[in-house]
Amino acid sequence: MSLTDKQSASLLAIDPKLPMAPQIYGNIRQSILNLRLAPKQALSEKELALMLGVSRTPVREALIKLAEDGLVDIFPQRGTFVAPIRVSEVLEAQFIREALEMSVVARVAELSDPVAIARLHESLARQKRAVDHSDLDGFLAEDENFHFILSVSVNLTRAWKVIQNVKGQLDRVRVLSLPEPGQLAALYEQHLAIVNAIEAGNSSAAKRHMAKHLQQVFRTIESLLAKRAEIFD
Amino acid sequence: MSLTDKQSASLLAIDPKLPMAPQIYGNIRQSILNLRLAPKQALSEKELALMLGVSRTPVREALIKLAEDGLVDIFPQRGTFVAPIRVSEVLEAQFIREALEMSVVARVAELSDPVAIARLHESLARQKRAVDHSDLDGFLAEDENFHFILSVSVNLTRAWKVIQNVKGQLDRVRVLSLPEPGQLAALYEQHLAIVNAIEAGNSSAAKRHMAKHLQQVFRTIESLLAKRAEIFD
DNA sequence: ATTGACATATTACCATGGTAGTATATCTGA
DNA sequence: TCAGATATACTACCATGGTAATATGTCAAT
């Protein structure tokens, strides 16, 4: 199927004053993560450039970065395709994220910075509102922000970049399971437990709750493998 | 100072049959890591392309990737420069590497795969030879391989990529301290302790030795900050 | 001597054309 | 009907030219 058929609406928001390559990257990335661009869908430089109203060069740069994220596969002289969801890569992304975020949250608990804790509580309040309104997109954005606050509060911006990169593989799986009832509330409760452990300065409890939180993905994969086999490779 | 003056010899090994951008990336990266390209040195697309006998496009792609690694700073419409060694980024790279490699080595110890253990012993033997011959470059290559074996033996190739990326920040510091006498032998002993813990299936001991091993960088930074202040920012 | 305005040079960024390599469709021969 | 050869279309990759933004050097005015 051609890209143009299904995609023309969402990919048009490019501000010509700002650097184009990062905008294009974010644009395509979002479309891949929410599965509007399906796994194995072909992505041609030329067609994307035409749709976005830019030249092929910044599109190419965006695709290269997506390939490093493992979200697209580039086959030289053959084509570029949205990467299928590979279970092994999802599990590895989970491994990396868990290793990093457990170390991060331990450090946050050790420092026990009041400003950071206040920010986390503000985030929790916004999450609660999203849960109560069943605002899925709002919750997802705030979930991202919650984990961002954790890393940045202990000055680990590079670690956050790594987490964010591998998180792409996980988000693509999670978006398939989150609409199920009760999921959002469960995630909120886990975040709350993490913050409570941080506030108590209990780093080992913080790590334990974080691990439990992140390992949600295992249950998700299991149930999806049966239902949506076609999007896996 | 111009690039052309000091760099013409080392940057010329480009094979035109293979994709150029990755070759250029590795080429420049190596030169930055061994400090032949000094921190704050200007790198212009045009000049690098001229020296390497290629066009500016693949050079640009290589520089973008190096910027993501934090090894160069790109200032749009102003110039691209070798990044100064920023202590905060070195420490964060250390944090990330430690979090990941401790989780990796724990998994290696839990699996206790005989093939992996054999490979690690072979690597140790090569390291021993390099130490006995005071072969610095040989040891560095085998050190890289040793850590590579750990990740790959438990199928964590993406984790290895992340480790390798952040390791750049650490290598640039380490290359300044490694020629000191006794350093190589100490690293070998630490590798040996790690393998022994793995062989015993003792994952917590493996983690402990790995942490001690990696934290060598703290002592290095301390001694360098005094002696070579000009390469820090 | 110092400051401000202006001209020049240099930069990264984007657009676009050319090329070698690969897949697919079409044709040929049995 | 089907296998193999050929032509066509498509791809990512590289080369190169144009452009707006920034830095630097020059010179006049005070």
TrEMBL record, chains A, B:
Source organism: Rhizobium calliandrae
Domain HTH gntR-type: 18-85
InterPro entries named in the record: GntR_C, TF_FadR/GntR_C, Tscrpt_reg_HTH_GntR, WH-like_DNA-bd_sf, WH_DNA-bd_sf
Keywords: DNA-binding, Transcription, Transcription regulation
UniProt name for this protein: GntR family transcriptional regulator
Top-level lineage group: Bacteria
SUPFAM superfamilies assigned: GntR ligand-binding domain-like, Winged helix' DNA-binding domain
